[in-house]
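User: Sequence recovery, please. Input:
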């Protein structure tokens, strides 16, 4: 195995909008949870902050660039992606990886790596570790972001839903049911947080 190190400089063509998930029990930062880190200190020893591009954001872009052409080729050949394949290759989700260590089949994992270069490079769930390590991208000088409206991406958010056309037709209803369930869950969580605040005020 050969290890390669690439030092990269990114130049954006337009403003970027990145929002990180809010950790449980914490609040979003004043920039709508745009990624912020402390880098350096001022003359008084106070930490100076800057925005940055998270490694996961860049990795996700690389993964999509590798997978989407495969999905398009499969769709044209009459063998479109199944939903589980799309989540595995495009996002790296594998519910089956959450199993005990003594249940993991190393021979099967080796075979899966050999048959799927994307999974071999980027990893899959908890069972297949990524071979690609990416660091955060930081600006030359510290700078803080402006607030933009943001949204979390799903399969249906890519290019006005065109990505869904590359899935197997039988899988579309499953996707829509999943999307609806996630929306209902999000609304329920928001309602529970609201009720929780009301209860705390009473006591």
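Assistant: Recovered sequence (203 residues):
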């Amino acid at each position: 195995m050969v290890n390669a190190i690439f030092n990269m400089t990114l130049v954006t063509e337009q403003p970027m909008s990145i929002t990180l998930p809010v950790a449980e029990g914490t609040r979003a930062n004043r920039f709508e949870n745009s990624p912020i880190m402390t880098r350096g200190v001022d003359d008084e020893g106070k930490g100076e902050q800057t925005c940055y591009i998270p490694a996961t954001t860049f990795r996700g872009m690389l993964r999509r660039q590798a997978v989407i052409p495969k999905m398009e080729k499969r769709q044209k050949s009459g063998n479109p992606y199944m939903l589980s394949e799309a989540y595995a290759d495009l996002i790296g989700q594998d519910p089956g990886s959450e199993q005990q260590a003594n249940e993991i089949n190393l021979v099967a994992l080796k075979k899966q790596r050999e048959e799927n270069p994307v999974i071999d490079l980027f990893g899959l769930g908890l069972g297949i570790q990524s071979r690609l390590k990416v660091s955060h991208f930081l600006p030359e000088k510290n700078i803080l972001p402006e607030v933009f409206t943001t949204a979390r991406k799903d399969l249906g958010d890519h290019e006005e839903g065109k990505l869904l056309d590359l899935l197997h037709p039988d899988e579309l209803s499953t996707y829509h049911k999943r999307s609806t369930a996630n929306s209902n869950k999000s609304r329920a969580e928001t309602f529970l947080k609201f009720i929780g605040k009301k209860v705390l005020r009473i006591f």
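The beta strands are 36-41, 47-51.
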